Amino acid sequence: MNVQILEKDGHPEYAVLPIDDFNKLAEDSEMLHDIAAYDAVKKDMAEGNEEFFPADLIERLMIEENNPIMEYRKYRNMTQAALAKAIGVQQAAIAQFETGKREPLARQMQKLAEVLKVDMEMLLPISS
Question: Exposure pattern of 6-16 as b/e (b: 16+ CB <10 Å)?
Fold first, then answer.
């Protein structure tokens, strides 16, 4: 690697290198970032901190008409009544959330996410 060091006030300030060397460094840096991300996920999996969802659930979530609250509730084998009790609302409220007739309040959405063991963002409907 051919690097030229430019100084300012007697101290190294810039490194100038051929574009091919720069591109190789950038590629290597990206690869190291990808490896670190992979290692972090692998560690989370080994510690039981990472959950993978089955393809059929993901496919149902991708259908705009399907409600994520309902899909994750069903995936967790919960009834509307059980979910309602867990978050402190009536069963009718869960039915309205799932049909889109009513939007959960922020604190209800937070409780839904906790009970369904997903990030809050995962409960938001897909918008076109």
Answer: eeeeeeeeeee
Class of domain 55-123 (CATH, top level):
mainly alpha
7 — phi, psi (to 5°)?
Answer: -105, 155
- Kindly tell me the number of DSSP H helices and DSSP E strands found in the chain: 6, 2
The number of C-alpha atoms within 13 Å of 96 and in the hemisphere containing its C-beta is 12
Mean pLDDT (10-residue bins), the chain, 128 residues? 92 94 95 94 85 91 92 97 97 96 95 96 79
pTM (predicted TM-score): 0.65
How far CA 70 is from CA of 8, 56, 58, 82, in Å, comes to: 63, 14, 13, 12
Token pair recorded at residue 81: 């009544």
Cβ atoms < 10 Å from Cβ of 82: 14
Residue from 41, 6, 42, 2 nearest 19 by CA: 2
